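It is worth pausing here to work through a concrete case rather than discussing structure prediction in the abstract. The textbook approach is simple: state the sequence, then state the predicted structure, then interpret. We follow exactly that order.
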Amino acid sequence: MRAMPARQLWAFLTENDLRELIGQIAAREPGLTVSQGRYMRGDPRALLGDPASLERRESLPGERRIYLLHRKYSADIITHLQPAGPFAGWSQIDEEKTDCVVVRLKDSPAGELEPARIYAHVTWWRAAEKARKRPMFSIWASQTLKWIAARLPATSAKMIRVGPEALAEAKEGRLRLRYLYRTISP
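Step two, the predicted structure:
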């Protein structure tokens, strides 16, 4: 049986691990842009050119989302203007239809770390039909996720990877790796 291409992975990442990982992804091929926050004000195309020019907000307390887009591979940027509610006048990034890799991070108490979910949608549903994203983006996203998985060792829970700083701190007993209310051994 052939393995499916990676479209998501889980990894324990400290802030330093995340910063280094994003830097390494950017170094693989110039053109990566990084933007934080699910809601934005401004021209969505700025996500590829000047994401710092956008006003950004997170959608949920206790959670952050970082969007990785690539100038060469990310052609579709889809947002939806929010007509009412706490985000009225803001646009929400449509993660399913936008060509991006998403890093979702949960806030954790001091001394603990929840795994980040790193994922990319390469298909989405329109009514009863499944739509596929452009092959260039799908290949880049899949290769990026496989590249990340190959560089981060697995924890005792084989499906969850761990960054170098998180691994060192967990082994020294300064950090508890937690998933679904359980401690995960490095």
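Step three, interpretation. Residues 35 and 52 are 7 Å apart (CA to CA). The two ends are 29 Å apart (CA to CA).
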